[in-house]
Amino acid sequence: MSYKIEPIQVIPERVIDPRPKSSKKQTDSQYAWWEAQDDNTLLAQVLSTCGYLKRTNQTRIRQGSIFSRLYSGKPLSNFLASNSTLDSSNQLPIGRPTANVCYSCTDTLVSMLSQDRPAPTFLTDKGHYKERKLAKEANQFIQGEFYRLKAYDLVPRQTRDACILGSGFLKVYPDFISGKVCAERILETELLTDFNDGYYNNPRQLMHQKLCDRSMMLAAFPKKEAIIMGAVNGNVDTTPRSTETISDRFITVEA
Fold first, then answer.
1. Sheet of 191-192, strand order
2. Is the Cα torsion angle 170, 172, 176, 181 positive or negative in sign?
3. Rounded alpha-carbon distances, angstroms, from residue 20 to 24, 55, 81
């Protein structure tokens, strides 16, 4: 009995792009803003990407507003949706007996955790006097920085945000005026990312929206005075409580 060995025929794989040909080039360059060739293109692409992510994150904001009502009974203030659209619940009878379990459990946990004040410590292993003195001075420096940053006041707020919204964030950044390290608590609703990009908890891009004071931005970027003064005033939402204000602020986006 005889047989013959023949090579296997391999069919090349075909990748089908469902997007129209007219929008392929525009879409590819629109969301890869970090590859922009100049500042004007970078600015346009960052704002365009931010606007797109604001539309796709509406569901997440509405879900966060539900969590906020469970804790405080009030809707969530944010940049993406108005409070008038989030506060759609019916008025419950006045004087009814209530017991807010979410509020009680959250504040109890935050109070227990805020009593502990952990800090990194520099230790030496059989070090001589100079090394032990250097480690002692480094510990004092870290304690002083934690006191200056008010870290032990920010972390309980971050923990409370995590209990209410599911995630709590603490942003560490350099100050543009003094050059020192700064830290601030930011809300989950101020951060934007693509769902597919962040599916594995490691997104390539993350955007932070913030309401900034105009005078502070002028002090941080004196060379951009014309652009800062021409920026349109911004608000957290479109409700009268947000629009009727005496502050001079506008919305910035950090990507």
1. 191-192, 207-213, 249-254
2. positive
3. 7, 22, 31
- Would you say 205 and 255 are in contact if contact means Cβ atoms under 8 Å apart? yes
Contact 74, 68 (CB under 8 A): yes
> With helix as H, strand as E and coil as C, how does the chain read?
CCCCCCCCCCCCCCCCCCCCHHHHHHHHHHCCHHHCCCHHHHHHHHHHHHHHHHHHCHHHHHHHHHHHHHHHCCCCCCCCCCHHHHCCCCCCCCCCCCCCHHHHHHHHHHHHHHCCCCCCCCCCCCCCHHHHHHHHHHHHHHHHHHHHHCHHHHHHHHHHHHHHHCCCEEEEEECCCCCCEEEEEECHHHEECCCCCCCCCCCCCCEEEEEEEHHHHHHHCHHHHHHHHCCCCCCCCCCHHHHCCCCCEEEEEEC
In this structure, what token pair is assigned to residue 8?
């296997």
Structure tokens at 182: 């700064």
**CA 177 distance to own-chain centroid:** 22
Q: Which residue in the block uniquely carries the two structure tokens 């659209």?
A: 85
**pLDDT digit string (tens) for 196-236?**
988 898 888 999 998 889 998 898 888 889 989 988 888 88
- Say how far apart CA 236 and CA 178 lie, in whole Å: 28
Each residue of 83-116: pLDDT tens digit? 555 665 555 666 666 788 888 999 999 998 888 8
Cβ neighbors of 31 (< 8 A, separation 6 or more) are 45, 49, 52
Burial grade of 144 (CB within 10 A; 0-12, 13-18, 19 or more): exposed
Contact criterion met (CB below 8 Å) for 191 and 207: yes
Q: How far is CA 173 from the centre of its chain?
A: 13
